[in-house]
Amino acid sequence: MVVNLGIGLPTKVIDHMPVDFEVCLHTENGMAGIGKTLPPDQADRNLIDAGGAYVSTVPGSAFFDSVTSFAMVRAGRLDLTMLGAFEVAANGDLANWKIPGKFSPGVGGRIELAQKARRVVVLTTHTDRAGNPKLKQTCALPLTARACVARVFTDMAVIEVGPRGFALIEVAQGVTPAEVAEATGAPLHLPDAPVPTF
Predict the structure, then answer these.
(1) CB 33 within 8 Å of CB 24
(2) What are 177's strand-pairing partners?
(3) Is 170 designated active site?
(4) Which tens digits make up the pLDDT trace of 103-136?
(5) pTM for this structure?
(6) Radius of gyration over alpha carbons of the chain, in Å?
């Protein structure tokens, strides 16, 4: 698989992957085949991911300009993209590029990644800093893409986004399905069987 890691929480995924995991990680600023992040004193300062973290190479790493990188995105060459989010709607709408009234460096590659990757998953906290749900019936913030999110991974749960809306798949240890439902701003469909934990 070719997997894009978006800015924010998704860039942390790389440090939890087994070394022999057969996946090609992509960053839209021009690298495929990304190794673990490195501290500044061990890093090649020319190798960064889209969020500015220092990364390493793996056998077969490739470097290219942003035109080539986005040609890969636009051609549908990404099997999966992992993105952060401000809000996700029950129908899979994604808002992750702007909070009105707050500084935004621009939309970047988010719109194209959300629209063109074969599968879009979101990694985010379940609520914002004020405790408000990020998973909502409809997004109030400007949309990045419509009906694109397939699954959401939060600090509380793993939630599938499907025709019925949000469906609980797993819960974090020490968290109950009722707590997840209370922290979700839309109906949450619970399975009939006990919910697995992670």
Answers:
(1) yes
(2) none
(3) no
(4) 776 777 788 999 999 999 999 999 999 999 999 9
(5) 0.91
(6) 17
